[in-house]
Design brief:
Blueprint: E1 13-17, H1 22-33, E2 38-40, H2 52-62, E3 66-69, H3 77-82, H4 84-105, E4 109-113, H5 142-162, E5 167-171, E6 173-175, H6 188-202, E7 206-210, E8 216-217, E9 219-221, H7 222-235, E10 242-244, E11 250-251, H8 252-263, E12 268-272, E13 281-282, H9 287-291, H10 300-313
Parallel strand pairs: 1-2, 1-3, 3-4, 4-5, 5-10, 6-9, 7-12, 8-13
Antiparallel strand pairs: 8-11
Helix pairs in contact: 1-7, 2-4, 4-5, 6-8, 8-10
Length: 320
């Protein structure tokens, strides 16, 4: 069956799995702004996506026409390295339950969101979509990556077996309002924001970061990802995952310097080179996305300042 992407029906039931997380909340805001009138989302306390029977019951009751699967157990190097079983098991169950229930419910259009960590550790840079499954993964987050790769393959399998126009997208490193700023579970950018902001408030003479500062990373504001997600749902159809990023990167040392400047920290930055660096470079080739008509619009410093403002406004309610 041929499918031609087109504007989505703003009156249709649209389920956002993970609507309270960093990604899901941004997508929810975007959909609201774009006039979608029947958005559905459930807190994890009300719907445990790891509980297969509950997920199927929910889809049978709600019957969404569109779905974005943004729910996932996520974390930085420390969390991934410490709890690999949790990252593999939880994410596999969430994905299989939601995708199987969506299939039974006949969901017309579904977007599965993964992560750029699906690509090999030493993939040629910038990383093209066809680098998937061509080499060894980064050891510190291979369990999470395998789960996300399984999600991509399930999307492709649904397309082959059932002909449904489901798609998947792989965002680069994300940041923005609603991020996880916890001490053990955060990714690099929110971890740096918290570390430098607390050091500035305490007047500390130095801040120590993990690794050498030399790895290069690409950062995308989550509101840009939300815009790209709706764009892909309305303009793209194909079995291959689509990279979502800015197409530019910076070193961890450069991003640390920028964070220090934005939060007003004037002390020294030191590096604990005994800690792991992770992948040396992870820059996505975003030409497929650009060819579909979308490019990012939020600059790194602009996005960082708004994220710092959000963090400071919510500092008393954030997870430790």
């Amino acid at each position: 069956m041929m499918y031609s992407p087109s504007p989505l029906d703003r009156d249709a039931t649209f389920y956002v799995a993970g609507h309270r997380g960093l990604v899901g909340s941004a997508i929810w805001r975007k959909l609201e702004a774009e006039g979608f009138r029947d958005l559905r989302g459930e807190a994890s306390a009300d719907l445990d996506l790891k509980d297969r029977e509950s997920v199927f019951d929910y889809f049978r009751a709600v019957r969404p026409r569109y779905v974005v699967l943004a729910a996932a157990k996520v974390g930085g190097i420390l969390a991934n390295n410490t709890y690999p079983v949790d990252f593999l098991s939880d994410n596999m169950r969430i994905q299989v339950n939601v995708l199987d229930a969506a299939l039974e419910a006949g969901v017309e259009r579904l977007l599965f969101l993964g992560s750029s960590c699906i690509y090999p550790k030493f993939a040629p840079q910038p990383i093209r979509e066809d680098s998937l499954l061509t080499g060894h993964l980064e050891e510190t987050n291979d369990s999470y990556a395998i789960a996300k790769i399984a999600g991509i393959l399930q999307i492709q399998a649904v397309r082959r077996q059932y002909g449904l126009p489901w798609i998947s997208a792989m965002p680069t490193n994300l940041y923005g309002p609603g991020d996880n700023f916890s001490r053990e579970g955060s990714h690099v950018l929110p971890a740096l924001i918290r570390r430098y902001d607390e050091a500035a408030q305490r007047g500390e003479a130095s801040v120590t970061n993990w690794g050498t500062g030399t790895p290069r990373r690409e950062f995308l504001h989550v509101d840009d990802l939300a815009a790209a997600s709706l764009h892909l749902l309305e303009n793209y159809d194909g079995p291959a995952q689509v990279n979502v990023g800015t197409g530019t990167d910076v070193t961890i040392e450069e991003i640390a310097e920028l964070v220090a400047r934005v939060v007003g920290y004037e002390g020294r930055t030191e590096w604990d080179t005994m800690k792991p660096d992770g992948t040396p470079q992870k820059l996505l080739d975003v030409s497929k996305l650009a060819d579909s008509g979308w490019t990012s619009s939020i600059g790194l410093e602009e996005g960082l300042r708004s994220t710092v403002d959000w963090y400071r406004g919510h500092a008393t309610t954030l997870r430790e």
